[in-house]
């Protein structure tokens, strides 16, 4: 049972698949410089087919060239860094879905670790181009590198599905305006921030643990270049102030999505501000797990004298929410995101229309539904 598990309706041309020699499927004819356009390839294939069989209708030719045998599709994937809890879950689901649901061969999927280094990731992308991948799924190290990546992939005739780190909105529009085969699949981080704030605002005391009329908080941020970090930071607090809560920020520091940094930042804040801290907001669950270690080490008790929220719904965190050790989290639906990313990658390969942006909903996780969410993710 999956929240957003979709019934696959891939219209792969059954039994009528022509192999397109341009790239993938072990073919050595990959053209990395000339970048034949889809239209040119289609026309050439259509011409060949006509010569082979005078009986074949134009419609059949179209259907045939549009559906590529998934067993021959080569997919290049680069994840910004393997040492990221959430992106590890995402990556595993993505690979599983491509293989088990879409019929892509494991040996035709290349998954690289960007090692949080844009230069390294750029080399991986260039290798994918040289190897003749049919499509790429890219979790950029730096969203600001998107124009370069898109330009190189587009020049090579390779579509790109960006995931998790959203490029600029103007760039997403430029893909449409310029007819570039690129799309973004993600989740609107404003929603996750709002949900975090609401989880606090919906508490009986609205997060005012010490009852002095002001909710004082610390904000443990992800990588601030990331819109996820920016929006979660902004919208969590906005949800609180929208609910009429008076707030004061005591500390805001970047923890780069990392548990150890979350622990250090929270420990320092607790020793500096002590009992004044009512709420610890973390932009993700890994940092919230670190914050929990610091809170416990300082002898504080979540949901009694301090509140703690994260985002992602890692199994450990959802269990903590059930056991009253964390106030809440927000499910970052990597099933929905991975499936949509893979579906859109295959749509590109099969010449179907693909929009420029796909957003998957977040889900609030509190004691009320934690057991249900655990059932979905475990
Ligand atoms: C966020 C997620 C974080 C981290 C980040 C990487 O969506 O909540 O845990 O994985 O993506 O860009």
Explain this structure to me?
The chain is of the alpha/beta class and 378 residues long. Helix content is 43%, strand content 14%. It is built from 13 helices and twelve strands. A six-stranded parallel sheet has the order 2-1-3-4-5-11, sandwiched between helices. Helix 6 links the parallel strand 4 and strand 5. Helix 3 (85-100) crosses helix 12 (334-349) and helix 11 (315-322) packs antiparallel against helix 13 (370-377). The longest helix is centred in the first third of the chain and has 16 residues, at 85-100. The chain is elongated and about 65 Å long. The model is unreliable at 1-65 (pLDDT under 50). The structure holds beta-D-galactopyranose. Beta-D-galactopyranose (GAL) binds at residues 84, 86-87, 164-165, 222, 226, 228, 257, 284, 286, 311-312, 332.
How do the strands and helices of this protein lay out in sequence?
Elements lengths: L37 H15 L5 H9 L8 E5 L5 H16 L8 E5 L4 H14 L3 E4 L7 H10 L4 E4 L5 H9 L4 E5 L2 H13 L13 E7 L5 H16 L4 E8 L4 H15 L5 E4 L2 H13 L9 E3 L5 H8 L6 E3 L2 H16 L7 E3 L3 E3 L4 H8 L1
Parallel strand pairs: 1-2, 1-3, 3-4, 4-5, 5-11, 6-7, 6-8, 8-9
Antiparallel strand pairs: 10-12
Helix pairs in contact: 1-2, 3-12, 7-8, 9-10, 11-13
The protein binds beta-D-galactopyranose.
């Amino acid at each position: 049972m999956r929240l957003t598990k979709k019934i696959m309706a891939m219209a792969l041309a059954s039994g009528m698949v022509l192999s397109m020699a341009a790239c993938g499927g072990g073919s050595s004819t990959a053209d990395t410089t000339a970048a034949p356009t889809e239209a040119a390839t289609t026309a050439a294939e259509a011409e060949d087919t006509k010569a082979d069989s005078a009986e074949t209708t134009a419609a059949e030719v179209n259907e045939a060239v549009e559906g590529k045998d998934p067993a021959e599709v080569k997919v290049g994937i680069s994840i910004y860094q393997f040492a990221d809890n959430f992106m590890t879950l995402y990556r595993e689901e993505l690979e599983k879905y491509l293989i088990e649901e879409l019929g892509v061969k494991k040996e035709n999927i290349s998954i690289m670790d960007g090692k949080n280094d844009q230069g390294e990731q750029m080399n991986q992308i260039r290798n994918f181009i040289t190897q003749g991948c049919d499509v790429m799924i890219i979790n950029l190290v730096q969203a600001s590198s998107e124009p370069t990546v898109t330009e190189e992939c587009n020049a090579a005739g390779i579509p790109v599905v960006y995931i998790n780190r959203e490029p600029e909105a103007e760039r997403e529009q430029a893909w449409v305006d310029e007819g570039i085969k690129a799309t973004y699949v993600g989740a609107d981080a404003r929603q996750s921030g709002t949900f975090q704030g609401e989880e606090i605002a919906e508490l009986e005391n609205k997060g005012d643990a010490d009852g002095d009329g002001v909710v004082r908080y610390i904000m443990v941020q992800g990588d601030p270049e990331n819109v996820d970090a920016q929006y979660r930071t902004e919208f969590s607090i906005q949800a609180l102030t929208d609910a009429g809560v008076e707030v004061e920020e005591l500390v805001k520091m970047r923890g780069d999505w990392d548990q150890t940094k979350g622990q250090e930042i929270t420990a320092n804040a607790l020793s500096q501000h002590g009992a004044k801290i009512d709420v610890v907001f973390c932009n993700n669950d890994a940092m919230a797990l670190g914050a929990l270690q610091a809170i416990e080490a300082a002898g504080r008790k979540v949901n009694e004298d301090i509140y703690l929220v994260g985002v992602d719904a890692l199994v450990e965190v959802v269990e903590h929410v059930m056991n009253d050790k964390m106030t809440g989290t927000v499910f970052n639906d990597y099933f929905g995101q991975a499936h949509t990313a893979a579906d859109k990658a295959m749509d590109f390969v099969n010449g179907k229309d693909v929009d420029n942006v796909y957003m998957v909903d977040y889900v609030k996780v509190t004691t009320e539904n934690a057991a249900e969410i655990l059932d979905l993710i475990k």
